[in-house]
Amino acid sequence: MGNEKVLEMKNITKTFPGVKALDRVNFTLKKGEVHALLGENGAGKSTLMKVLNGIHKRDEGEIIVKGDPVEFENTKEAQNAGLAIIHQELELIPHLNVAENIYLGREDKKGIFINYKQLYQNTADVLEMLGVDIDPRAKIKDLNIGSQQMVEIAKAVSQNADILVMDEPTSSLTNQEIDILFELIERLKEQEISIVYISHRLEEVFEICDRVTVLRDGQFVGEVKTAETDEDQLINMMVGRTIEDRFPEMKFNPGEEILRVENLAVPDKIIDASFLLHKGEVLGIAGLMGSGRTELAKAVFGVYKEKTGDIYFKGKKLEINSPADALKNGISYLSEDRKDEGLVLGLPVADNISISVLTTMLKAHTFINAAAEKELAQKYIEDLSIKTPSEMQLVKNLSGGNQQKVVISKLLSTKPEVVILDEPTRGIDVGAKREIYNLMQELVDNGVGVILISSELPEVLNLSNRILVMHEQEIMGELDAADANQEEIMQLATGRRNQ
Fold first, then answer.
1. Residue 94 and residue 141: Cα distance in Å, rounded?
2. Exposed e or buried b for every residue in 365-394, given b needs 16+ CB within 10 A?
3. 246-330+416-498 domain in CATH 3.40.50.300?
4. Could you state one GO biological process linked to this protein (predicted)?
5. Which of 103, 146, 220, 421 has its CA 20 to 30 A from that of 452?
6. Nearest CA to 337 among 384, 403, 419, 287?
7. CB-based contact 283:465 (threshold 8 Å)
8. Euclidean distance between CA atoms 179 and 202, whole angstroms
9. How many CA atoms within 13 Å lie on the side-chain side of 101?
10. Are strands 282-287 and 466-471 parallel, antiparallel or unpaired?
11. Per-position pLDDT tens, the chain of length 499
12. Are 106 and 99 spatial neighbours (Cβ–Cβ below 8 Å)?
């Protein structure tokens, strides 16, 4: 890595109605470096990158790319200057193949027809240069998330991008896929490609990043070399205070059985699952990706029609054939996919929070009671510290962590007695995580039974009372969280059954 600056952003300011998203922010990127951009949700990271990429027009400040001042009017102009953003939600077309996605709109043609022989050769060349083993003819929909991400990177490199922005690139990847991604990032560095790396996983920052810039509340806090800092300093810079312990000391007082699942099975998804949940406890579910954790949660929540086995709620056998049945009986589910399953992005915060309880807000059985809806929204905006100018702000304009808090508010508005949280802290910052952990303690204190699904083993170990571990669609064993450790969980998660 040299000292040559390929990007300078100076005093960047951007205001949206009711909120100053960026306030005189500075950022520099050197040739061939990986530079982490950190900050809590709502700190301004994504807005800064959208200003860079021509999606938002800055109000003030200067952008210099490879020595030249620039004013990108759109993403195409940014792309032509060698910039590419790999978004958290990948922007690929599922029914097209790898080659067609990489060269979409830039295909070699023989007359009016695409020259497929040349297209596949070009794709193979790019993939080989990156050291990626993917068939150019494979359909995107048949690839796992890790491979799809490699295709996005190949697409950027094929456009001669030498500045890549990676936004939460590992949030949906397995550990093995993360290792492959990091190897690829090292190869990109060797080719003097510069990377802006946005992540909430601090251990990754220390593994692959050279420098770190921290934003807080739309302002530049500071820039440090990774080798000269530690997690505590970065957390302090991000949240403006030290977080003494990452996890609260959870207090459980398990009461009577609230949920019992016996011999639950779903074809190709769950094999013969049985477990108990008590009032006032957190039951953790651990396992590798694809082990069936989410499928088990969805089966309890009534998502799958084809299932066998019995579900008892407060000792009474239930017929749960739809999510509506589950909600009616006091069982709520927070999906791991907040964008597609948890939110209506084009509606305001208030509408999203109240959507599950609209029938209780009708005036004369016809009109929605706007005052009651506003009161409900404001309660959760305050309780969960949702950063939004007002309850009428569109959810799509909120940061990822604040969107997650809106989903949780929607869930809590139904006053559930059983709450299933599926990856509740994925892609959110350390401060917002702590707020969700505190909320879990509050639920437990009120006698709610909580099921927590998480890929982060420290989270499962520190927040649970008991832990179920799954492997290949089966529950392999149950552990007392107070006595368990990561090694024991991984043994079960890789198929060694608990005796």
1. 5
2. eeeebeeebeebbbebbeebebbbeebebe
3. yes
4. monosaccharide transmembrane transport
5. 146
6. 403
7. yes
8. 15
9. 28
10. parallel
11. 567 999 999 999 998 876 788 999 999 999 999 999 998 777 889 899 999 999 999 999 999 999 999 989 998 899 889 998 888 777 889 899 999 999 888 877 877 888 888 889 999 998 988 888 899 999 998 888 778 888 988 888 888 889 999 988 887 777 777 888 898 899 889 989 999 999 888 889 999 999 999 998 899 999 999 999 998 888 888 877 665 667 888 999 899 999 999 999 999 899 999 999 999 999 999 987 778 999 999 999 999 988 999 999 999 999 999 998 998 899 999 887 665 556 787 888 888 888 766 555 455 445 566 777 788 888 888 877 888 888 888 888 887 778 888 888 888 887 889 999 998 887 677 777 888 898 899 899 999 999 999 988 889 999 999 999 998 899 999 999 999 988 889 889 887 765 5
12. no
Full-model pTM:
0.65
Distance CA 356, CA 353 (A): 7
What residue spans define the domains of the chain?
5-241, 246-330+416-498, 343-413
**Number of neighbouring beta carbons within 10 Å of residue 151:** 25
Give dist(CA 344, CA 241) in Å, integer.
34
Q: Which residues pair with 468 in a beta bridge?
A: 285, 478
Instruction: Supply 73's token pair.
Output: 């009017």
Reading the block at residue 206, the tokens are 């220390």
Structure tokens given for 437: 């952990």
Instruction: Kindly state the tokens that stand for 339.
Output: 């964008």
Place of tokens 């108990």: 276
